[in-house]
Structures
1.
Amino acid sequence: MNTSITVHGTARAGGTARTTGTARTTGTSRSQGTARTRGAARTRGAARDRGAGGPPALPARAAAHRRSTGGAGTVTDLRRRAGRSPRQLRFATGDLVVVSGLPGSGKSTLMRRAVPGARVDSQDMRDQWAGRMPRLLPYGIYRPLVRLAHYLRLRRLLRTGTGLVVHDCGTQAWVRRWLAREAARRHATLHLLLLDVAPETALAGQGARGRRVSRYAFLRHRRTVAQLVRGLTAGRLPAGCASAVLLDRPAADALRSIGFGTDGAGRPR
């Protein structure tokens, strides 16, 4: 049975969140299971997981708390699901989703497979520029131009107001702040998808794609991602994010669709 999660969060993000396993699966008239993970609305306290009739939810990893502003976000932990990971994640129309993780963890692979709509991946921009540059020209020479082009494209797509999935290495906190401001401007929500994979797995992924980051850069990424994972496991959302989903490699591999817009039952429109 296919499963889907509809992710909601509060418009004003930050503070302490509720950390849960996947919400239970609910059967639909077409035998599709639908699970929901709801963040609290505005000032109504902590989020609740709803639904029945499917596999039981994993035990919560942290208690629900009300943050100082009166709302709460939700952290959904899809790691170690033993084959019960959802195939689909759905977000509200106009929301923004940041995909973060170690270099080589599978962010670009996940986005190319699961995001049929608008996405902004710095790897796509790098590949475009690499195809136009002399083969022996080191990437470091034109890297500033690639980054500029990447952020200009991101800015252009943000102006459209459409739901957007954005690749982010996690070390550039200013990017999340920028996206949080944009989400607030359009009265939408910023969500975080964090891939939690072992450093050895990420290094193997870098080898498979034929590009490795420097040892210094990788250690910096490890510190940043480890801090994010610890915070989310404890129910602490990064500033600006109203919800987060923790994925390990099997959970990421199981995802087939990340999209926007659902009806009241959590099914794609």
2.
Amino acid sequence: MLRPEREYFVKDGLVMETWQFDPAWSKRRRTVYEVMRIINGIPLFSEEHISRLFQSAVYAGIKDTPDPALIMESIAKLIQTCKPDDGNILISIVRKNNQIHTFAYYVGHRYPTQIEYTEGVTVRTMKAIRKLPNAKIWNAALWKKAEYLKSSSDAYEVLLIDKKKNITEGSKSNIFFIRGDSVFTTTESKVLQGITRQKVKELCNKKLISLSEKEIPMKELSFYESAFLSGTSPGILPVKMIDKVRFNVSNKLMRNLMASYDKMLETSIQGLPE
């Protein structure tokens, strides 16, 4: 698992100093996790993240999970203890020798720059699949491979390609495509059902935008006019290139979704009904 980035972390509801953190606690253990963004001390979409954390635990076969209230309390303690409080927090449930442990701590993040939101980012592809795509289970080998490819090619993200040469999802994000007035994304059963992905779907439904879930073959990338990533850190982020295929980063429909998502974040931070 990733290591804590700040002075304190929370284990099983207790605040501890980071020097006490032992990576062996999660090494070779079944670990499910979530990463949520904190803005102005407010965890964004916390209920959705915690719900998916426990859903992942079910998929991973982790039983006797703790009360969700313990996770919420751990997040609150961490935010109160660590200043500044903005950033990304990782929450996890770890099964070790038939014992269940919970963790919460700040991890490193990479938020897009304003230039990247304006001009789009470069994305690469690699052959990889996750065995349980609907569960967020820590996969060190896939993470290391994706991070190496990103750093060696100066790419913001890496998309996973399955055995049929279809695009599924990003290593830390979901992917959407646009053609005309319609939005397309990979079938839900083949990807992690990201929280931001769900918010994009909600926006499309609210705005009566056609959204189709289907296979996205690599050979058909040029069929689409625009593409964007969705995720905890980037929100909605335009893609200017996937490998050698270029996309329009000024697409009006995409820019409209970006603006609507930003308003949704403001509403969440202010605690107002959507």
